[in-house]
Amino acid sequence: MMFGRKIRLKQGMTLIEIMVITALISIILLVAVPSFSGFFAKQKLRGLGGELFFLTKLARAEAAKQGSDSFIVFNKSSSTSWCIGLSENQDDCDCTTANSCVVDSIERVISSTDFKDVSFDTNTFTDGKITISPYKGRSNNGTVTFSITADGVSKDLSLMRSTMGRDRICSPSGNSLRYPAC
Known about the structure:
Layout: H1 15-66, E1 70-78, E2 81-87, E3 102-103, E4 106-107, E5 109-111, E6 119-123, E7 129-132, E8 142-150, E9 153-161, E10 167-170
Antiparallel strand pairs: 1-2, 1-7, 2-5, 3-4, 6-8, 8-9, 9-10
């Protein structure tokens, strides 16, 4: 009999065990990452829809408060370089210039730098802007459309405005955004 000998337990992991765990983590990441990029792309477009809707409501409130027209000006340098500004004076608002689209001393601009990879596709508003009257928020009618592509799938979003001043955010292709199909 061997008395006094201590049994040593192995501690740590073998190289093979580490390689198997690394392979499993890699496979999980390969499956999960594309779905996350699609999720974030949809969130960008949803966020833009919310910003557009807020801007139109703010423009209507400002027109009523000031008793004069307010303007939402769209500026598109390219499909991925664009900005949208709100102003009380259509000639002063150039959303590419800092502090030119100001309402109540606050700059009101939505920019492509905040919505990376979102493309500005179409604008059917007269002169490329929305003119909102203080009388019941009426305006020129038209549509602006934005899109983003993730995982090979294109998602799109439109702001439609009627002459009666009704705003509608919708998805022209009805592609699984929280907004209804147009």
